[in-house]
Each structure stands twice: as structure tokens, then as C-alpha cells.
């Protein structure tokens, strides 16, 4: 016999009440686990789509470019020699898998019958596809790459302008000095749009872009970077920033700006909202466990006043009476966590084998892969167990402070 | 040296707006290994006096010394520790812990109060179960035992820590006369074998006739001290 055994027997003494309380905790744990897993998977998938299809994980620009990015300013490009120095730094970073310089510009798109505006990215195809590997999966028609003289155009533009793969189109752009230049391209592929900035841009070879813009020397609007391990985003970002500052800082002036994907897309706010919602769901779990356990422990103390009086009268130290009731609360928390954890994982397994799909913007049929991080699981379990103990504290303290003579008189 | 020394004890209660004088200056002594009973009508102060001797309550004035300790000065923790070592309790309603078996109820004070090692606990509990004739009922819970069996377990629980005295408030009140007689005999046997002092409050004439020293209380005053008849 020990204190924990007595606590367990006391819980089993009121089977229905214990079961009901454990069920409430179980429901809470299941709800939180499923929500955390589904929202976490949704968030991870969305981030993956945005970073792997267009943004990259990190981007480097000339200072002030991002604030003016809607205008695609040509006077805020990085010079070729700066890009070479940046490339040198990036090549020495062990966290970086690939990087891609881009020359971004706005122009006029013409099918020889009508014209409209277009935003274009001049790219080195191989480097771009290595940096944003999902870009090729967005090409719904035509070739999965481009060569000089070819253009990838967004699906909405192709549909609106009635342009097909293989058609000739003309791109006209205003140069940095204000003059206008044009060039003919062959449509190599049609790109599906994605949600977010740059999701409806077209792509041409970077040397074609420089030719249209009549650049005597190639300039770059941004360098997109892909990391080997997305989880190392912050340390890698800090390291790259440090290296760039070492190379480029003059006095207190740093001519570059560097951002993670979080600073480049409004989707980050949606991701933050999901985090806030998860926090409030966890808060609800805390409230549920707190109220359930507190209620059942108050009842337990009230119903066992004479028993407490007997224990105190025969000399049980107040600390042991306190421990007994706290162990009952702890056991309730552990029971609810174990059952809730098991049921929650089972539901996640069923969700995953059910192959549930959903749409995100223009992307259809994305497969939901609900999984819970072991750390999240441990955190939820610890929250429930800790709150159960905290909820037992007041009733347990009351029991331990009870005067034996008063308790023994209780009817 | 007397085991219990009560010196001019008073105990006042406040019941709502009414002040109740439960004890009005009582003095007495009880020697070790005595078989003592307090008798008197309801409201005479018997239970109050037992509570004071058992360190469950403190006197309003006066001094009560148990085993050379002024028990009125002990705080909650020290008072619990003192009871755990020196005093055993037998209650009118038995007050066994319902989730524990007969064996575990007897073992409880050794584990929770005195922290005795397992082998010694087993030895003491088994011996007492034999003595009170409950060895074959050791695994039963209180709701599976009769009133007399419960009280035997309660007696064993009170004695298992080898206390200097056992306090019993109306120990036979809820038992039929035959069972009550058996329980009285058992307590007397325990006193003889272990030299433990037994102090009762009772209305039971059979128990009164068995005691060696009888204190008669009336309206909070000690009316007489004498031998049981």
C-alpha cells in the first residue's frame, strides 16, 4: 500500500464521476491534438507552396527595393559586381541548397491584336528551378523549362489574351533611362497562378530580360535562396546577414536588405493567426481541465470530510493528506492525457488514410497530411497534467488544513 | 508519573450568539495501564473531554498534560505527530477508510504516520489480526464486514502503533449487546497484554461495569470518581 494506490482506489470508488471527468479531459486533448495537427500541417503545406513555388526561403535586395516592389523599380537593382560578391558568400554557406538571381520588371504584353500589362522575372532556368522546385509543377501546359527567346506566361493572362503554347508574343518594356524597347518571344508554357506576391508573374531567360531592358551590364533585382533544412531558417538567416554585413557594411550604412519569406508575403499573418488560434484552443483546454478537475476534487473533499477527519485524528501529517488529494488530481490528468492522446493519434491516422484533399487559391487537390510534432504532444500532455495538479491544489490544501474535530463531527 | 494530568480545565464554545460552557474547571489524573470511563448524560462534556485528552482540541483555560507533554501548546503538525505516536482512536462509527482492506486499515498508521519498514509492518499487522480474531477477514473491505468485525479492526488499528493510550468515544454504541461484550473483553485483553491505557466515554452499562475507574460528568463538572460496578 502507498499513497498513490490509495489515491487510485479513491478515484475508482466513484467510477462514473471519474469516467465523466476523464472523458471531458480526453475530449479536450483529442480536440487540441487534432486541431494542432491539422492546422500545423495546413500551415506547413501553405508555407511550402509559397516558398517552393515562387518566393524561396530568403531573399536579398538592394536597400529600399521591397518597399517599392509593387513598382518593380529598375533604379534599385543590384550591380553585377555586388551580385558576384553575394554569390561568393552564399556559396560558402553550408545551410544553402541553391540560390537564384532574378531581374524583375514590368512590361506590356501583346499578342499582336491586343495588349495588357505583365510582371516578368528574368531568371537562369536551372538555378531558379533548383531554388523554387515547385515552379515546374505550376507549368500546366508546354515545356517544363525555358530557353532564350521563350516565355512562361500566367494562365489567367493566356486565357484572357487567347494565347497558346507556341504562339508568338511581344514584350515591350521601359528601360531605366526612360526609353522603350520590345522583343518577340515564343510562349513555352502556361503557369498556374498561386496565391501571394509574384504568384501571377511570367518568366523569361535573364539574358533576354537584360536585352529588353537594354542593360549594358546585367543587374539583379533580387537573389532568392533555398535552404537545405527549412527548420534552420532563423540561424541561416542570421548567418547570411552577418556575412553580408561583414562584406558590405560601410560605416553605419548597409546597402542591402535581407528578408526571410515571413517578411515578404502577407500569408505570414495568416500563419500567425493560426498560431494565435492554436494558443486559444490550448487555453480552452486549460480551462476545461481546470474546471473539470477542480469540480471533481471539491466534490471529493466535501464527500470525504469525515474520512479526512479520521486520517488527521490518527496522526496523518497534513502534508500527506495534501499529497493524497493532489495525486488524485494528477491521476485524473494522466488518465485523460493517455486516453486523449491515444484517441487523438487514432483520429489523425484515420484522417491520413482517408486522403482528404483541399484547395489553396488556384491550387487544387492538395493532400492533407495531419501529423503532430512530438514536442507538441509532450507540451499538450504536460499542460493537462500540470493544470490537473494545479486544479487539485485548492481542494487538497483545504483538506489538509481541516480541523480533525470539526471534520469528525461532519454529518 | 501519571499518564494524563488535567488541571482546572475549562472549555467554552460559541454556538451562534450563545456561549456554551462545556467544561467548567475539571481536574483529574489517569495512571498508565488504566481502564477508565467517563460517563454522564448527553451534553455533560464527555466527548469534549476526550477530544482535549486526544489533542484534537485545546482547552479554553487550564492545562492538560499527556505523557509529560502540555498538549494545549502543540501546533497542528506537532499535534498530529504526537497523536500518531502516543494515542490510538476508536470511534463510535468505526471510521475505517472504505477503500482499504482490513489489513490495510490496520497498516495505515504504520505507513502514513510512523513510516515503519515493510517487514516490521507486516509482522505487527499480522499479529494484531490474529489477536483480534480477524486474520481470515484481512482482505475484506469495511463494507464486507459486520459492525463487530469493523470495531475489531478499529481496535487493531488503534493499537498497531503501540500507543500509550487508546481513546474510545462510545465504542459499543453501534453494536448489539453480544458483540459489544466481545469487544469490551478484547479491549481489556489488550490492556492486560500491552499495558495500554484505555479511556472511554460511554452510556453502556456493560462497559461501565467492566471499567476500573469511573468519572461521572454532569453539566461540565466532574461529579465523582470511583470504581466501575
**How many domain regions of chain B?**
1
Q: What fraction strand of chain A?
A: 15-25%
Rg for CA atoms of chain A: 31 Å
Number of domains of chain A: 2
Kindly report the name of the CATH homologous superfamily of chain B. Answer: P-loop containing nucleotide triphosphate hydrolases
What average pLDDT do the residues of chain B reach? 88
Which sheet architecture does the biggest sheet of chain A show? 6 strands, mixed, barrel
Q: What structural class do you assign from the helix and strand content of chain A?
A: alpha+beta
- The CATH topology of chain B: Rossmann fold
Which series of helices and strands of chain A comes N to C? Answer: HHEHEEHHEEHEEEHEHEHHHEEHH
Shape of chain A: elongated
Query: How many strand units of chain B?
Result: 10
Q: Helix proportion of residues of chain B, in percent?
A: 25-40%
Task: Give the key terms.
heterodimer; A: 411 residues; 6-stranded mixed beta barrel; 13 helices; 12 strands; 53% helix; B: 229 residues; 6-stranded mixed beta sheet; 4-stranded antiparallel beta sheet; 7 helices; 36% helix; 28% strand
